[in-house]
Write a structure and sequence with these properties.
Layout lengths: L7 H16 L8 E5 L2 H6 L1 H7 L14 E3 L17 H9 L7 E4 L2 H10 L23 E7 L5 E10 L13 E4 L5
Parallel strand pairs: 1-2, 1-3, 5-6
Antiparallel strand pairs: 4-5
Helix pairs in contact: 1-3, 4-5
């Protein structure tokens, strides 16, 4: 096991994700950016945290604004090599956020639906919650808006399909919105 870094396309997608949050004036409302302990996942939301002006976190990359969960475990440390090892700690971290927090949560395709289900979200709708053959999230461009009340119960608000490709897109998909832009954006 060795840390997996974002490839150049992943780096570009991460930059565009940060721009997406900033362009829609969402970044300044974010109070927390959480990612798994996997380096690549934290790199994916680094620009979101930067656009939100976050910092001061204490984890594997102190001060980058992304709180890695679990914060004290390296990607390949014994017992933490698999992406599934981040599932329970992430659920606990989300549950511990102060009421009223607005968090961006980045995790792995095999963890996202179980994390949502832990807060009572029904992920059975194949349009709002697209799955691949193994039951994990289909694709890399899904964003869900979930509201969690003071009692820890989640309510699904919106499914957004982000088109972070380098080509313009005007696609629409039933049950979600598609946003895209070209290279000059």
């Amino acid at each position: 096991c060795c840390p997996d870094l974002l490839n150049p396309l992943g780096q570009e997608r991460a930059l565009r994700l940060g721009e997406w949050f900033e362009d829609r004036r969402i970044a300044q409302t974010i109070t927390h950016v959480l990612a798994s302990h996997k380096v690549r996942t934290a790199q994916t939301v680094f620009y979101v945290a930067q656009k939100a002006g976050l910092g001061g976190d204490v984890d594997q990359n102190p001060g980058d604004g992304v709180l890695q969960i679990p914060w004290n475990r390296a990607e390949c440390e014994s017992g933490f090599g698999s992406s599934a090892s981040a599932r329970a700690p992430m659920i606990a971290a989300i549950s511990a956020l102060p009421f009223g927090s607005k968090a961006v949560v980045a995790n792995h395709s095999n963890n996202l639906y179980p994390i949502m289900e832990a807060f009572g979200i029904d992920t059975s709708d194949p349009v709002k919650f697209p799955r691949n053959a193994s039951g994990s999230v289909e694709g890399f461009n899904n964003l869900w808006v979930i509201e969690i009340d003071a009692g820890g119960h989640g309510t699904f608000r919106e499914h957004v399909i982000l088109n972070l490709s380098l080509m313009p897109s005007a696609s629409q998909r039933e049950g979600g919105h598609s946003y895209g832009w070209g290279r000059d954006h």
